[in-house]
């Protein structure tokens, strides 16, 4: 009796857990560009005979859009996909189809969704590199390498004089005197303080496992010492030029070649004094003028 109750309870709990469930056969799918692929997505009968099904897409930049909505493909997918009870099929994929696909099912007040990550495999192209041809000893130098075509994103390797550089030079006796830093994921090769040991021909390589690795053009990088003598000479020349200019201005002023600045003459001001008490109209009826003096 106890065994029967346990079995019934197990069946009940299992059935409750499985209700309104969306299932996918593979959450990670890879496919070569221009090939077809199925994104399989099924659901339990709890949703009813005609549940609402939707497919949403989020690309690598985070932009979201509908693939299948209102029981039909959206405009940009109508000639490329087929939706059936077991999932969604692409007739032919492109690199722009890489991203996350959400399978959502809604029906009988139940809801569930699952996500499938699709990666469209694309070989890398010839990477674009930036390598300076001449740098100064002791300066910080950055070499860059980038490919924006490969999918998945490639990793990068750098070569000096046709010899591959290890990720960590300190672990190899041949490269222990070099002080570069390499980032295999973004393609940067940095020299915090470049030296004569870093002189050489450099190129980078991009590889994501699809097709042959691609290499950039090789560029010779020379390391030159700072020209201290040239800097000092330049400062001396500049000081001499300023001195000659000041002397020429002084000489021209002394000889009268420079226009003189007109001296301003003081203005004459009239200062008036207040009338005294005995000033005013005299006995003859004539007005006596107030006294004033000029400064």
Automatic annotation (TrEMBL):
The keyword Magnesium does not apply. The keyword Repeat applies. Residues 18-119, 123-220 form the Ig-like domain. One of its GO terms (cellular component) is plasma membrane. Residues 1-18 form the signal peptide. Keywords: Cell junction, Cell membrane, Disulfide bond, Glycoprotein, Immunoglobulin domain, Membrane, Phosphoprotein, Repeat, Signal, Tight junction, Transmembrane, Transmembrane helix. It is a single-pass type I membrane protein. GO terms for biological process: cell adhesion; establishment of endothelial intestinal barrier; intestinal absorption; regulation of membrane permeability. The chain crosses the membrane at residues 228-252. It is found in: Cell junction, Tight junction; Cell membrane. SUPFAM superfamilies: Immunoglobulin. Belongs to the immunoglobulin superfamily. Interacts with the ninth PDZ domain of MPDZ. Interacts with the first PDZ domain of PARD3. The association between PARD3 and PARD6B probably disrupts this interaction. Interacts with ITGAL (via I-domain). Interacts with CD151. PANTHER family: JUNCTIONAL ADHESION MOLECULE A. This is Junctional adhesion molecule A. The gene is F11R.
């Amino acid at each position: 009796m106890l065994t029967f109750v346990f079995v019934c309870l197990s069946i009940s709990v299992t059935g409750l857990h499985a209700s309104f469930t969306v299932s996918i056969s593979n959450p990670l799918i890879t496919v070569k560009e221009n090939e077809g692929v199925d994104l399989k997505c099924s659901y339990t009968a709890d949703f009813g005979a005609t549940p609402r099904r939707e497919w949403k897409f989020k690309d690598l930049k985070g932009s979201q859009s509908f693939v299948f909505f209102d029981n039909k493909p959206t405009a940009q997918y109508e000639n490329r996909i087929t939706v059936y009870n077991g999932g969604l099929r692409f007739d032919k994929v492109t690199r722009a189809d890489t991203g996350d696909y959400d399978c959502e099912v809604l029906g009988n007040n139940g809801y569930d969704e699952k996500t499938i990550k699709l990666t469209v495999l694309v070989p890398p192209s010839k990477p674009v590199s930036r390598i300076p041809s001449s740098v100064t000893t002791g300066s910080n130098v950055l070499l860059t390498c980038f490919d924006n075509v490969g999918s998945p994103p490639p990793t990068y390797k750098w070569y000096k004089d046709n010899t591959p550089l290890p990720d960590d030079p300190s672990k190899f006796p041949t490269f222990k005197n070099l002080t570069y830093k390499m980032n295999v994921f973004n393609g940067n090769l940095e020299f915090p303080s470049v030296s004569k040991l870093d002189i050489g021909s450099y190129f980078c390589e991009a590889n994501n496992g699809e097709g042959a690795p691609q290499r950039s053009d090789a560029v010779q990088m020379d390391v030159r010492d700072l020209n201290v003598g040239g800097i000092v000479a330049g400062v001396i020349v500049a000081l001499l030029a300023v001195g000659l200019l000041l002397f020429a201005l002084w000489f021209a002023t002394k000889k009268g070649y420079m226009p003189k600045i007109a001296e301003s003459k003081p203005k004459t001001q009239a200062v008036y004094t207040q009338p005294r008490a005995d000033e005013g109209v005299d006995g003859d009826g004539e007005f006596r003028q107030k006294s004033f003096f000029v400064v």
